[in-house]
Amino acid sequence: MQPEQPTTHPASLDAFWMPFTANRQFKAKPRLMAAAKGMYYTTVDGREVLDGTAGLWCVNAGHGREEIAAAVHAQVMELDFAPTFQMGHPGPFALADRLVKMLPGDLNHVFFTNSGSESVDTALKIALAYHRVRGEGARTRLIGRERGYHGVGFGGISVGGIAPNRKFFGSLIPGVDHLPHTHNLEHNAFTRGQPEWGAHLADELERIVTLHDASTIAAVIVEPLAGSTGVLVPPKGYLERLRAICDKYSILLIFDEVITGFGRLGSGFATEHFGVMPDLVTVAKGITNGTVPMGAVFARQGIHEAFMHGPDSAIELFHGYTYSGHPVACAAAEATLDIYEKEGLFDRARRLSSEWENAVHSLKGLPHVIDVRNMGLVAGVELASSGTPGARGYECLVNCFEQGLLIRTTGDIIALSPPLTIETSHIDQLIEQLTKVLKALP
Ligand SMILES: Cc1ncc(COP(=O)(O)O)c(C=O)c1O
């Protein structure tokens, strides 16, 4: 597919300091997209690239959706911006009302942000403030998990469990501890869906509680399925145990659903998928199909209620962003939710998940493949290290791109998370191209 207008290479790549990128390596041999429609990107030199990653886990309804474009355009012309500090406009009220109906239980209040990182830092702040307004201000400790990714704010990298994201940035926020991760190939390699082994790892929370005392712990935050560190599917019973231990000690449980929200697992949210109710849920990405930055935090009734005391004139939570509930983001989100609903995309993901599972597990036995794991429309394919961690993964990414396939790699793990609009023919193409690349990798 050709872009509607020919796009030229930028005159210089120098000024843009690229995020999470080896800038010098990239700029020596760039990979530039010019256009996107449906399941495909088109590069600046006119090549088609199958999107195996929904952009960056966000374009769940596929690219170039006219309905979203029209809603964004109309919104800019009608109301481009209005503040939401001591002022309002209809957009975020209507959107919040619609969103809370999609979540189970009493997750019935929404705080809007502009990204996953902001959602995480917002949720952590709500957790701390919640305990304080209830008179338990000593509960300041936050518990994350090794191999957790919660964005790049100071809160997020503090509870996150990825060393390079943390080690350059000083002492981070104090009073944070980490659960062990659940990744174990000895027990769980080539599991389809949730592994049998590993629920006991949640009991480490008991050890942390014993060490610090429950009266100092505010919240535990985990990704229900860890995406960015290589698609780590929660062992059977693990999330349930975390919930039970949090309940026992009145610790809040936060699910970071920035990746799992909006259909990725074949349910609206992981919360519903696993039948485990957290106290706070963070989302972003798929909320606007990746078109306009937006994030949100869902809070259970009791959490919101705890703040609604004192004089009516008192601001209950000293937190917010200029663009919280931005009119254009709200319009994009409404149009996105319309598409999800009209096209039944979450059900579609569920229906396709066994076909997807069989397809990705067909990679077992190919050179270097030491694990395949999957759930809904997401999969991780782990490659043996070549000796230089990440080198084989990177080579695979570059070769796939040259073959016309966009994958994402974390070290030597390939993550696949296509738009939920994927068809059988795309799954076949993806597996065929990846197989070819894997077979040719040294
Ligand atoms: C689970 C999770 N939390 C938070 C984030 C951060 O989101 P953002 O990049 O929008 O700040 C991500 C991004 O991938 C994520 O996967």
Q: Kindly report the CATH topology of the largest domain.
A: Aspartate Aminotransferase, domain 2
Largest sheet entry: 7 strands, mixed
CATH superfamily of the largest domain: Type I PLP-dependent aspartate aminotransferase-like (Major domain)
Low-confidence stretches: none
Rg from Cα: 22 Å
CATH architecture of the largest domain: 3-Layer(aba) Sandwich
Q: Determine and state the CATH class of the largest domain.
A: Alpha Beta
Count of the separate structural domains: 2
Structure overview:
The protein is an alpha/beta fold and 442 residues long. The chain folds into 2 domains: 23-61 and 344-440, Aspartate Aminotransferase, domain 1, CATH 3.90.1150.10; 69-342, 3-Layer(aba) Sandwich (Aspartate Aminotransferase, domain 2), CATH 3.40.640.10. It is 36% helix and 16% strand. It contains 16 helices and 15 strands. The chain has helices at residues 23-28, 54-57, 66-78, 90-100, 116-133, 154-159, 163-166, 185-188, 204-212, 238-248, 270-274, 301-307, 327-342, 345-361, 391-403, 424-440, and strands spanning 33-37, 40-43, 48-51, 109-113, 141-145, 176-179, 217-222, 252-256, 280-283, 295-299, 369-375, 378-383, 405-406, 408-410, 413-416. It has a 7-stranded mixed β-sheet with strand order 4-10-9-8-7-5-6, with helices on both faces. A 4-stranded mixed β-sheet has the order 1-2-3-13. A 4-stranded antiparallel β-sheet has the order 11-12-15-14, covered by helices on one side. Helix 3 (66-78) packs antiparallel against helix 13 (327-342). It is globular, with a radius of gyration of 22 Å. The two termini are 32 Å apart. The relative contact order is 0.16. The model has no long low-confidence stretch (mean pLDDT 97). The structure holds pyridoxal-5'-phosphate. Pyridoxal-5'-phosphate binds at residues 115-117, 120, 149-151, 223, 227-228, 256, 258-259, 284. This is Aspartate aminotransferase family protein. One of its GO terms (molecular function) is transaminase activity. Keywords: Aminotransferase, Pyridoxal phosphate, Transferase.
